[in-house]
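Hey, I was hoping to borrow your eyes for a little while. I've been staring at a protein lately and its backbone has me curious. You're getting the sequence in one-letter code plus the fold written as tokens. Would you mind checking whether the tokens look sensible for this chain? Here's the protein in full, and shout if anything looks odd to you:
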Amino acid sequence: MISQTFGRRYNWIMSATFAVVVVVSAGIVYLGFRVKYQEQIVDLRDKFQERADNLDHFLEITTSRVDALQLQANTALDLSADRPPLVSVFNQVQELPGQQFFVMDQVRSPLTSEMVGNLTGQGELSDRSADFQRELNMALNLNSSFQATKRTVPNIAWVYYTSKQGFINLYPWQPSRIARFADQMYQQEYFRLALPRNNPLRQRFWTQAYIDTSGKGLMVTVAAPVYLKDEFRGTVALDVTLDALNQFVKNFDDFQGSLFVINQQQQLLAHPSLVSSADLEVKSAAIAFPEELQNRVQFNQPGLQIEQIGDYLVVSEQLKHAPWRLVWWVPTGTIVHNLLTQTALGAGSLLVGLLLMLAIANWLTRREFIAPAMQLLAHIEQESQELGADLALVPPKPSYIPTNWRPWFETISAAFAQNRALLRELQQKAESLLLARNSLAEANRTLEQKVSDRTAQLVKAMQEADQARSAAEAANQSKSTFLANMSHELRTPMNAIIGYSEMLIEEAAEREPAEFVPDLEKIQIAGKHLLSLINDILDLSKIEAGRMELYLETFDLTNLIQQVVATIQPLLTKNNNIFKLNSAADLGQIRADLTKVRQSLLNLLSNACKFTQNGTITLTVTRDQMPNSLGDGQAVRAASPLGKGNADTIQFKISDTGIGMTPEQMNKLFQPFTQADASTTRRYGGTGLGLAITQHFCQLMGGEITLDSQLGQGTTFTIDLPAEVSNPGATASVSNFDSNP
């Protein structure tokens, strides 16, 4: 029955619609989840950057105070070298009877203990040299700066000057029974690392974490040497407890992760729960990482980098004003769980709403359209079966259908009644046959007219398609010409940027300090990279616009290979790769476009270096010489693999042990702006132009490039070129060898 078939088809359509709605809803939820996941990562990275900036700001203030104390001490010693010593506060320093020790335990007006530190030292004050008195006076005059430093950086523990002449001025003031000078201080890093043999450049430095002998627990010190001209006199130093550093890593919204600070010696300097100044020993940074991350996190990447390691996200940043690194790790599962919790209600509401709408639409459609339509089909089938019966011209009105569908039933019943009347007429009147013939002729005429009209429409459509294709080809040509012109125009200012950056690097390197050189080098590197991309686009545009030309010359293959190997050497070193060259001692000469051959080899070797780490890259160069005769006087007429007849061919084979490719990825290569897949672009960068340009160059020189790769085992590119390019721009085809006697 037609009505039953109609009902089954409708049910199938509704089931398919339901499945599509579920799939689309799931896709929308997934896309929303991915967007929120990326937003969450960016938000956490911004919060991490804010903590890093806060800690760096604290370290900047701390180091600037040490630099200021160093400058003040050096200046005071230089200015007092030729002057008699001042004794403005000498009367405050007293000797301890019978102990060969002097201290400043009694602070008298107008001074207070908040204004000075306790200056303690070995020996007696009487009969000391003028040089000693000048240095002692300089140390006492540092008290005002000590007080200002303590106010500027309230979280510091101590600020002090340690002299190699056996005394120390320690602020804030403490009785000498608690903290006084001792010879062991000379073995501490804050003094030992300042000695000329350890610090010939007189630079400020940070120590490792250690336990304070005065009872303030674990701390780190930033110190700087003090000189009188070229003579080392002592150090100025500032101590920061690990509890003070902990303030910068607490209360971080880390999704059950961990934020902490480590130094170059892999000491754990700050952690919300694992580090305290009251600890009895310095802890290793390894305990701050979960077992899965231990020995897997690399800290050799510059800048703020987020790295996925197993089930964890790890981000770290090198601090600018201390040789420390701020590190944060978080399980990806906690982020996913948090986002699922946030989006579950909305996703469920969306799905329920869509399903409810679909159910209501199905119910309304079935009641108002599908059920009446099925009844209408059943009514038509019934009328068809009773077409020969003698029924009344006006059929009975059905009472089992909606009112708005009744006219359709009545119309169909009337039509069938008229058909029945017509049949009776045909039986009674023979003239009906003539009428039918006329009707058929009219139908044939109408059909011919329709065929003619449709033919005219088809011709018009084909003409419009030809015009559209011509317009598209013209637009593509215009695009290629535009890209070629724009790339050419962009190279001029980019070359200027690179040139000026080189001039600025040379000028900055001659000045002291050369702190701008790294930034200028980054500008130069970025400019060269952008110029390389512009050159690739210019080459591709020239090829598409039909403007690429060959400049043929004869050159030595061995010299070319040596130049290419020298150029690619930095890229080999970058990823710790081993390079092997397999070639004959004398490969002879080749007549081709030197620039395009060199660029093709560099493109392939650069790709091999980029996609290979700790592996081997091999360049094999061979010459296939075609003989003119073969024994017994028999002449051999053979076609070369490139279809050039009797001619030598040069083969360049570049093999690596890198990541390799799948057959699906290999099918995407040699297309402009295309790499193996999106993950390759994100991880390794690149525009996907190199291989496309290389293929065009090989074809222009009558050669070819082939590819062989296995996923995880490496890739081999092979370039075959005629030893003498004689037909620029012609595309070569490979032909089989044949020989005749």
Notes: Confidence is low (pLDDT under 50) at residues 391-395, 628-641, 729-741. The CA atoms of residues 190 and 223 lie 6 Å apart. The longest strand covers residues 217-228.
